[in-house]
Amino acid sequence: MDIQIKPLVTEKATAESEKLNTYTFAVSPDANKFQIKDLVEKLYNVRVERVNVANYAGKRKQRYTKGGLIKGQNPAFKKAYVTVAEGQTIDYYSNI
What we know:
The chain is α+β, with helices and mostly antiparallel strands. The protein contains 2 helices and 6 strands, in the order E-H-E-H-E-E-E-E.
């Protein structure tokens, strides 16, 4: 199983990372906490202490056009809050 993971860089996530040493990622909906922990430790070379997750359903969207009503939906995702060990940090921009 291939797990997609990408960091979420928002004002709230940045403040939380500075204050609580917790980093936020958007991951595949079928990933579990153990897989997320292993992947973050492997990608960023840090020791993960705790992983909390929240499921987000896809938002329904619709718009009216000349051809009629178009309906769609954004994909569902899972948000992972990863707490790393004291004194360690994750630099999102080092892999770019």
